[in-house]
Amino acid sequence: MLRKQFCVNGEWKDSKTERWMPVSDSSTGEVIAEVPCCTVEEVEEAIASAASAFPAWSQTSISQRTQMMFKWRNILMDHLEELSVLCAKELGKNLSEARGDILKAIEPTELACAAPFITQGSASLQVTTGFDTAAYRMPLGVVAGIVPFNFPAMIPWGWIVPLAVVTGNTVVLKAASYTPLTSMRILELFYHEAGFPKGVVNLVTCSRKESELFLTDPRVKAVTFVGSTEIGKHIYSVAAAHGKRVQAQCEAKNHALVLEDCDLESATNAIINSTYGCAGMRCMALPVVVVQESIADRFVQLLKKKAMALKVGCAYDPETTLGPVVNAEHKKFICDWIQKGVDEGAELVLDGRDLVVPGYENGFFVGPTILDHVKPGMTVGDREIFGPVTIIKRVKTFEEGLAIMNANPFANGSVIFTQSGYYARQFELLTDGGMVGINVGIPVPSAYFPFSGNKDSFFGDLHVLGQDGVRFYTRAKTVTKHWYSEHSHQKTVDTWEGTVERI
User: Fold this and answer.
1) Whole-angstrom Cα distance, residue 388 to residue 171?
2) Helix (H/G/I), strand (E/B), else coil: 311
3) 321 with 429, same domain?
4) Residues 6+ apart with CB under 8 A from 178
5) Which domain CATH number covers 292?
6) Integer Cα distance of 55 and 43 in angstroms
7) Which of 172, 206, 146 is nearest to 16 (CA)?
8) pLDDT tens digits, one per residue of 392-426
9) Pair (103, 207) in one structural domain
């Protein structure tokens, strides 16, 4: 059995732990590696490494950091296919989806290459007579990233590392124990091929118990978390109480509103991609479709037809369109939710629980599943399932549909399918969703804009990516300057020293 190491100061080290966590090939069910549940002392060592690397890295010029990011971007592109296969194997995404995971790590890296522009502050001469003021963006210090299993490249190496590093911070990543291999391989490339200074990024695998140190250690200045709402609330409250900045991206239950005037074929195609892409294991999936009753039967029939046409199979088979879920535990979790939906009174239109893929009988497969006639109060319609399960809620009007959507405690994304400019505009104006799609099934913005969840989907002040991401990983330093002339001593000034003027 391959036992993986953790990385401190650019060196891979054997853990002293007695607890090891399995990593599976999701398509075969085979355990392909074990990763350590690092000890508290080892997590402390990673933090210390980042703290030690910070002074030199933060003083490295923006020009040099930018050049390194350009090099790093090209290295990731060179290893795109290798990383895509590794991601598909440990997670279960098909090759196209896994390739997208890597590309969504590269996209923020390209944004980071604009550091000379995006990190600029502001300045004015002669703000008051003889006084100039400039505001700069300064790095924070050590930042921690606690990441989920479903995007082992995009979240640690897209949402966190590029903007954190290019602004002069150093990083400790807690890789997801289910899917750490992609992130570990990227870190190898980070040091061995890109040549970043040792200690700029460190990586551990551990349990929630050991990672609690990130929330309390005074050397850690900011925490980015992606995961469940329950844990996100805890991280936000504890870390904030210890004076840290927090981004807590949490659960979602995104809804799509399908109106009777929509292009039904195109809308259904978009919903198929969004709902069943990545086997539903993403917070920007569309697990709930709110559809007008006048077209509901036609829509459900068409959705079922297209869902049944998906090729379920090995994640790294190029022909596969729907791969497995991450592991046996998560498969059981999804299947239990499907049964709960049936028990609550939903109509099971399509059942993916007993699907077997020939040659991959031990893989963690769940086929596309549809639950229709889901009513208010059914928990299956309100809680995150994180699998290839579509919930259908039927409504009479736009207003009823919007009210149902906004009643949900989560507000990551929301989508409308319509040809009506009026209803599209009303939806854009009134939906609670932080990321809004109009005839767009997956309204994930590019890295140049913030990933903007609301309500119980996000806790914090500044979102990931875009200018929010730059501001999150930097602090303001405002400098006011005045130069004395040979006559300055002759001037009379008050206790504000001339910084307050009135005519």
Assistant:
1) 34
2) coil
3) yes
4) 23, 90, 91, 149, 326, 327, 330
5) 3.40.309.10
6) 20
7) 206
8) 999 999 999 999 999 999 999 999 999 999 999 99
9) yes
Q: Are 306 and 321 in contact (CB under 8 A)?
A: no
DSSP at 4: P
**How far is residue 55's CA from residue 78's CA, in Å, rounded to a whole number?**
31
Name residue 222's beta-bridge partners.
143, 245
DSSP assignment letter at 177? S
158 DSSP 8-state letter? I
Q: What is the rounded average pLDDT for all residues in the chain?
A: 97
What is d(CA 141, CA 394) in angstroms, rounded to the nearest whole number?
50
Q: Tokens in use for 270?
A: 């978009």
CB 44 within 8 A of CB 332: no
183 and 260 share one domain:
no
Give domain status of residue 195, yes or no.
yes
CB 373 within 8 A of CB 387: no
Which 8-state DSSP code applies to residue 132?
E
Among 7, 38, 87, 283, the active-site one is 283
Residue 263 sits in which domain range? 255-438
Count of H helices and E strands in the chain? 17, 22
How far separated are the first and last CA of the chain, in Å rounded? Answer: 79
What is the token pair recorded at 31?
Answer: 């355990």
Contact 91, 315 (CB under 8 A): yes
The least confident of 15-19, 110-114, 221-225, 495-499 is: 495-499
pLDDT digits (tens, 9 = 90+) for 293-333: 999 999 999 999 999 999 999 999 999 999 999 999 999 99
Residue 37 bears catalytic tag:
no
Give SS3 for 327. coil
Within 10 A of 397 (CB to CB), how many other CB atoms are there? 11
Q: Are residues 321 and 175 in the same domain?
A: no
Sign of CA dihedral 41, 43, 49, 50: negative
Q: Are strands 220-226 and 142-146 parallel, antiparallel or unpaired?
A: parallel
